[in-house]
Protein backbone atom coordinates (compact mmCIF):
# COMPACT_ATOMS: atom_id res chain seq x y z
CA UNK A 1 0.00 0.00 0.00
CA UNK A 2 1.24 3.42 -0.94
CA UNK A 3 1.92 6.31 1.38
CA UNK A 4 -0.52 9.19 1.35
CA UNK A 5 -0.75 12.60 2.98
CA UNK A 6 -3.64 14.88 3.77
CA UNK A 7 -3.99 18.31 5.27
CA UNK A 8 -6.61 20.73 6.50
CA UNK A 9 -6.96 23.93 8.42
CA UNK A 10 -9.56 24.77 11.04
CA UNK A 11 -10.63 27.32 13.61
CA UNK A 12 -10.10 26.56 17.29
CA UNK A 13 -13.17 27.01 19.48
CA UNK A 14 -11.80 27.34 23.03
CA UNK A 15 -10.71 30.36 25.06
CA UNK A 16 -7.14 31.56 25.38
CA UNK A 17 -6.94 30.27 28.97
CA UNK A 18 -7.46 26.65 27.93
CA UNK A 19 -5.10 26.70 24.95
CA UNK A 20 -2.03 25.10 26.52
CA UNK A 21 -3.96 22.32 28.22
CA UNK A 22 -5.87 21.63 25.06
CA UNK A 23 -2.80 21.36 22.86
CA UNK A 24 -1.19 19.17 25.51
CA UNK A 25 -4.17 16.83 25.41
CA UNK A 26 -4.31 16.73 21.62
CA UNK A 27 -0.59 15.97 21.31
CA UNK A 28 -0.69 13.30 24.00
CA UNK A 29 -3.44 11.37 22.23
CA UNK A 30 -1.98 12.08 18.79
CA UNK A 31 1.50 10.86 19.67
CA UNK A 32 0.19 7.62 21.14
CA UNK A 33 -2.12 6.79 18.25
CA UNK A 34 0.17 8.03 15.50
CA UNK A 35 3.18 6.12 16.81
CA UNK A 36 1.19 2.94 16.97
CA UNK A 37 -0.23 3.37 13.46
CA UNK A 38 2.86 4.72 11.74
CA UNK A 39 1.37 8.14 11.20
CA UNK A 40 3.67 11.17 11.05
CA UNK A 41 3.09 14.87 10.49
CA UNK A 42 2.88 18.36 11.88
CA UNK A 43 0.35 20.44 13.78
CA UNK A 44 0.74 24.20 13.42
CA UNK A 45 -1.21 26.62 15.58
CA UNK A 46 -1.39 30.37 15.24
CA UNK A 47 -3.95 33.10 15.89
CA UNK A 48 -6.79 30.75 16.70
CA UNK A 49 -6.25 28.49 13.71
CA UNK A 50 -4.90 24.99 13.28
CA UNK A 51 -3.15 23.62 10.24
CA UNK A 52 -2.33 19.93 10.23
CA UNK A 53 -0.51 17.70 7.75
CA UNK A 54 -0.72 13.94 8.27
CA UNK A 55 1.19 11.16 6.48
CA UNK A 56 0.66 7.41 6.51
CA UNK A 57 -1.37 4.69 4.83
CA UNK A 58 -4.40 6.12 3.04
CA UNK A 59 -7.02 4.20 4.98
CA UNK A 60 -5.38 4.99 8.31
CA UNK A 61 -5.05 8.74 7.76
CA UNK A 62 -8.52 9.09 6.25
CA UNK A 63 -10.11 7.26 9.18
CA UNK A 64 -8.10 9.47 11.53
CA UNK A 65 -9.18 12.58 9.68
CA UNK A 66 -12.84 11.52 9.96
CA UNK A 67 -12.39 11.56 13.73
CA UNK A 68 -10.41 14.80 13.84
CA UNK A 69 -12.96 16.58 11.62
CA UNK A 70 -15.74 16.02 14.16
CA UNK A 71 -13.63 16.88 17.19
CA UNK A 72 -15.57 19.52 19.16
CA UNK A 73 -12.39 21.48 19.94
CA UNK A 74 -12.41 23.05 16.48
CA UNK A 75 -14.76 23.82 13.61
CA UNK A 76 -14.78 25.25 10.07
CA UNK A 77 -12.51 22.38 9.06
CA UNK A 78 -11.28 23.03 5.53
CA UNK A 79 -9.91 19.86 3.95
CA UNK A 80 -7.28 20.32 1.23
CA UNK A 81 -7.42 16.71 0.01
CA UNK A 82 -5.41 13.50 0.19
CA UNK A 83 -2.66 12.56 -2.22
CA UNK A 84 -0.11 9.84 -2.80
CA UNK A 85 3.42 10.78 -1.72
CA UNK A 86 6.79 9.20 -2.50
CA UNK A 87 8.26 9.64 0.96
CA UNK A 88 7.49 11.16 4.33
CA UNK A 89 8.43 14.75 5.07
CA UNK A 90 8.05 14.31 8.84
CA UNK A 91 9.86 11.02 9.29
CA UNK A 92 10.52 10.55 13.01
CA UNK A 93 7.81 12.98 14.18
CA UNK A 94 4.63 11.25 15.35
CA UNK A 95 3.21 14.79 15.46
CA UNK A 96 5.57 17.72 15.35
CA UNK A 97 4.12 20.82 16.97
CA UNK A 98 4.96 24.28 15.65
CA UNK A 99 3.65 27.67 16.74
CA UNK A 100 4.03 30.93 14.93
CA UNK A 101 7.71 31.87 15.16
CA UNK A 102 10.14 34.19 13.40
CA UNK A 103 10.86 31.68 10.67
CA UNK A 104 7.18 31.20 9.78
CA UNK A 105 6.65 34.96 10.18
CA UNK A 106 9.31 35.58 7.55
CA UNK A 107 7.76 33.02 5.24
CA UNK A 108 4.50 35.03 5.21
CA UNK A 109 6.27 38.39 5.08
CA UNK A 110 8.24 37.34 2.00
CA UNK A 111 4.91 36.64 0.31
CA UNK A 112 3.38 39.94 1.37
CA UNK A 113 0.96 38.29 3.79
CA UNK A 114 0.50 38.02 7.53
CA UNK A 115 -1.29 34.73 8.09
CA UNK A 116 -1.93 31.37 6.55
CA UNK A 117 -5.52 32.39 5.92
CA UNK A 118 -4.66 35.57 4.06
CA UNK A 119 -2.00 33.73 2.04
CA UNK A 120 -4.42 31.02 0.96
CA UNK A 121 -2.75 27.66 0.45
CA UNK A 122 -2.39 26.27 -3.06
CA UNK A 123 -0.31 23.54 -4.70
CA UNK A 124 2.91 25.51 -4.90
CA UNK A 125 2.95 27.41 -1.62
CA UNK A 126 1.68 24.42 0.35
CA UNK A 127 4.85 22.54 -0.46
CA UNK A 128 6.95 25.59 0.51
CA UNK A 129 5.02 26.00 3.76
CA UNK A 130 5.60 22.35 4.64
CA UNK A 131 9.32 22.80 3.96
CA UNK A 132 9.28 25.69 6.46
CA UNK A 133 7.54 23.53 9.04
CA UNK A 134 10.08 20.73 8.56
CA UNK A 135 12.86 23.24 9.26
CA UNK A 136 11.03 25.11 12.04
CA UNK A 137 11.96 24.39 15.60
CA UNK A 138 9.61 22.06 17.41
CA UNK A 139 7.71 23.85 20.18
CA UNK A 140 7.66 22.20 23.54
CA UNK A 141 4.82 22.94 25.89
CA UNK A 142 5.41 23.33 29.60
CA UNK A 143 4.45 20.21 31.55
CA UNK A 144 0.93 20.22 32.99
C1 LIG B 1 -6.45 20.00 15.81
C2 LIG B 1 -6.52 18.54 16.23
C3 LIG B 1 -5.54 17.65 15.77
C4 LIG B 1 -5.60 16.31 16.15
N1 LIG B 1 -4.64 15.44 15.69
C5 LIG B 1 -4.70 14.14 16.05
C6 LIG B 1 -3.74 13.21 15.54
O1 LIG B 1 -2.81 13.53 14.79
N2 LIG B 1 -3.86 11.90 15.96
C7 LIG B 1 -4.85 11.47 16.82
O2 LIG B 1 -4.90 10.29 17.13
N3 LIG B 1 -5.76 12.35 17.28
C8 LIG B 1 -5.70 13.65 16.92
N4 LIG B 1 -6.65 14.53 17.41
C9 LIG B 1 -7.64 14.02 18.37
C10 LIG B 1 -8.82 13.40 17.65
O3 LIG B 1 -9.68 14.42 17.16
C11 LIG B 1 -9.63 12.50 18.62
O4 LIG B 1 -9.90 13.18 19.81
C12 LIG B 1 -8.84 11.24 18.93
O5 LIG B 1 -8.50 10.61 17.73
C13 LIG B 1 -9.66 10.29 19.83
O6 LIG B 1 -10.84 9.96 19.16
P1 LIG B 1 -11.97 9.06 19.83
O7 LIG B 1 -12.32 9.77 21.10
O8 LIG B 1 -13.08 9.04 18.82
O9 LIG B 1 -11.33 7.73 20.05
C14 LIG B 1 -6.63 15.86 17.02
C15 LIG B 1 -7.59 16.78 17.47
C16 LIG B 1 -7.55 18.10 17.08
C17 LIG B 1 -8.59 19.07 17.58
From TrEMBL:
Residues 3-96 form the BLUF domain. SUPFAM superfamilies: Acylphosphatase/BLUF domain-like. It comes from the Bacteria. InterPro entries: Acylphosphatase-like_dom_sf, BLUF_domain. Gene3D superfamilies: 3.30.70.100. It holds the Pfam family BLUF. SMART domains: BLUF (SM01034). This is BLUF domain-containing protein. It comes from Acinetobacter pollinis.
